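hey can u run this one w/ pyridoxal-5'-phosphate bound, need the structure tokens asap thx
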Amino acid sequence: MQRFDNARAAALALRPDEPVYCFRPQVLKDDAVQFMGMFPGKTAYAVKTNGEPIVLKALVEAGVTAFDVASPGEFAAVRAVSDDAEMLYMHPVKAQADIKLALEKYGIRVISVDHEDEITKLTRVVRALDIDPGAITVFVRVQTKGHAAYELSKKFGAGPAYAVELAERLAKTGYKVGLCFHVGSQIEDPDTYERALASADWVRNRLSFDLAGLDVGGGFPAEYGHDPNRKQVEMPSLGQIMSRLSGDIKEYQFDQMPLVAEPGRVIVARCLSLIVRVLLRKGRRLYINDGIWASLSDSWTGKITLPARFIPDPAIRSRNGSEKNIVPFKVCGATCDSVDILSRPFRLPETVDTGDWIEIGHIGAYSLSLRTRFNGFYPDTFVEVTTPFDEGDAPQGFASLETMAD
Ligand SMILES: *Cc1c(COP(=O)(O)O)cnc(C)c1O
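ok here u go:
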């Protein structure tokens, strides 16, 4: 992989017409090490957030030894970068063939369920493979209520009373039993984990046996850009969220058992930025070479404010206006699909023109893992960049809340 100081140097050297991902392995390692240092238990990175081999490899180098996986593709991706990394199969709804593959080929011994039929599937495989259920830890996924940018508690999880029933049934069959929850992605309310812990506590107090562990899932918020025209949502720092979580874990006396977290976004968001090219400027519209069907679907939802930095093409000799004048542009994606327009305008210097580049920061999470081959576009070019996105000139742009007429 070619290496550059920053995205501007990469853009000016390569003059890329295709989107280019700028990977910062040191930022990734620092963010992983920081999280592991703060969480009082095992850190299992959620592979779906970004399962690129270079990302998984860097995480292994940073000392991550456990991964939250959900599919055969993810089992293989983790095994490809580490022979001995532990995998936690935390998808509550699984194909029976995938359970067999997990247990038999990949040696997975941690799994989650939220329904009795999932226990039936699991036990069928366990018996067929002649595995002692006592060698397997089954986490019962408890439903939670919370406020996250992406709510997942509606789709999965057993209500507290049903969770008690599932846990008792698992314990009777001989499994080790834990409780888990996942509050959704990018939490927006610092009380979220405490509410989930209270539900887990309610379940625990009704069990006839001791729990083998508690898994608090993901949801830890990553830092993004901020639109100065919008009232800033007051969120505590990750350090503050973590010390509160650790305190609550002690208060609810979950600190005496093995703990697991499944962070995704907070580990990988900062380690990648994306260089896109302006293929055409049409008034206040910019047509770029990426979009919602490639790296920018997470921004399309409008819930994330991505920072952006203008990289003018020095070959453009004459420009209209002043680079200091920052104005909103509607950003249209690469495909022919008419929905492929970012939901919020980007604010950029009014001088931006056809042929310029824009670096979009903090796109390491739920970006390239969601890209499609729709319309034949599939960004897949990577360079290594040494300077973190937030060092250097302040980004001019961000997805702003103002709406724009066509
Ligand atoms: C997606 C997911 C995660 C990661 O969530 P982040 O918000 O990215 O930290 C963790 N656990 C489960 C079960 C998930 O589905």
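DSSP finds eleven helices and 20 strands in the chain. anyway lmk if its weird
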